[in-house]
């Protein structure tokens, strides 16, 4: 009997322990009454986008009752009429692409209207927005214009790389950027229903972004359309836009947005190249003649620079890539080599408001990843919420030291007009053999945990004109070493002066940077970024 009593006592103790243990687990697994309210608040306010396999999906996630939407990569309305396979195939998560935002949702309460998703490449600092149109369009002659802007009273350099070949960190940061995309190469209409569109933007790393309250800054992007009857990129006018042209500004307005108001604008902009097709499809011959109507020498230099950069991305980094100051190459394991670049251009546009209008459901704004976004934030919160961009440049870097030599000579020359023997001297402006501005580079700390970032090369550039010549027509040289000029003896006047001393208007440094992921199966990316010196 005593043994039975002991057994019952042990069983009761075990039962009590089990009950307490179950109660403790339940308390740990479920929020307390106070916590439950905050969880409900987060669920009813913050919206976590639906995640999906964007790489291999045959159909996009849509709710029951809505017609299936094919992926952007192949099928009806795909992007192949705008971009080559180097862009289409460049979408692998293993190559650094992350799903940042997504409005495709199989659990939506109704049909999706013009849904979109956003990919971000953490090794290259590139953001791509993919939009699918479900709205009917009747604007066969219009071009597509897209734009991105910062909505905030705070200053950030996040958009400083967009629309620029050379970045000047001493001026007000970029606040808005707009670009006009070319018509599809297959002759189809630029605008249409049941069709995919892609917009790419290169982002700069801004360490100060984390100090801005998340609800005081947003990224805003939009789509619109209107006719452009003439475009001139400095070489000749054409009625067809064959390449993406863009314009950045430190305000909410730029030359492309102003076209809507004035019908004709002139200003600075860029040719924004996404993919090798920009070069291949616009080359007429080896002399530099091109369908973009750029000056032949500029297009030939660009083509040479892009080809050299593609070679560098394959592991053959040359001594100096000429003709290219801003670009991102490589990083795609799917091949061919991915390419993105910017080229400064003097843009002249003429247009009308015929068929102009904004896409339904745009503009669209979202919280900026890298800020401390609260769990109960209103609307979508990013799936990828880390600091964006790869690098940036600190202001205050000193100009490159130069020195002027004494006069060499005298030398003699015969004046062709009167046969008089003239004397002249030679002088030189010397530049350093090498420069090191690596201490002014700012690297996104996120990359330290997943890649090796190496400065492969630093080159300096000089822009100048000769005294007595038109300052509008300036010479650009990369690593010149020295610039020489002829000089008459003091006090001697001649009817025809030879070229005189150079007037330096701008100097800067170009970095060639390799970002190599820790996984050896992922090819590295080569980033060319050029910064103007104060």
From TrEMBL:
Keywords carried by this UniProt record: Signal
Signal sequence region: 1-22
Keyword Signal: yes
Domain of life of the organism encoding this protein: Bacteria
Protein name, as recorded: Secreted protein
Species name: Proteiniphilum saccharofermentans
Lineage: Bacteria, Pseudomonadati, Bacteroidota, Bacteroidia, Bacteroidales
